[in-house]
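Message: Study each token:
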Amino acid sequence: MRIETSSGPAEAEIDHPDEPAFLLVFTHGAGGGVDSPDILTVRDTALAAGGVVARVLQPYRVAGRCAPGKPEPQDRAWIELVRALRAEIGRKPDSGTGRELPLVLGGRSNGARVACRTATELGARAIVAVSFPLHPPGKPEKSRRDELLAAGAADVVVINGGSDPFGIPDAADAAEVKVIPGQPHSFRKGFDTIAETLVPWFERWRA
């Protein structure tokens, strides 16, 4: 699905469960795509719990760039595309009234930052933050904690590797912080742990 935004077109790959219960809009990290093993694990786990899953390739990646640029235009484009997705696929089809599905946002690395920064404006119920980059490597004084806390009332589930040079958020700053020992910023293993962590949360959001 192609979505026009103020920063250019985005692309979304959509997967539908048999009985939709919530909408998960998930995106990649800087320079990444939407087919990495951790993102596919999130997709599969959400689908099994009744989530309509949209994996979004942001406009800067569609245009062939690796860096997202400034946060303001990135957030604006994200808000636009999420609203377009909600209008297109974010309603329960058999509800009679077209009731809007609960919205869950998510992303890995830079995508998790975008999801947290925009959660309040979009009315997200929850955030899935994979490899949230708390600070640049070797620069803990340049914390992005405020971006994590910007999610406001939304439940934030953080899943980070124990050896991530971008740091690990404090457990008090999210609904859950799951640390997978020995894993770097890009997971090489531990995908079963990612799924096990998310199952109860997806089931809760479905309820």
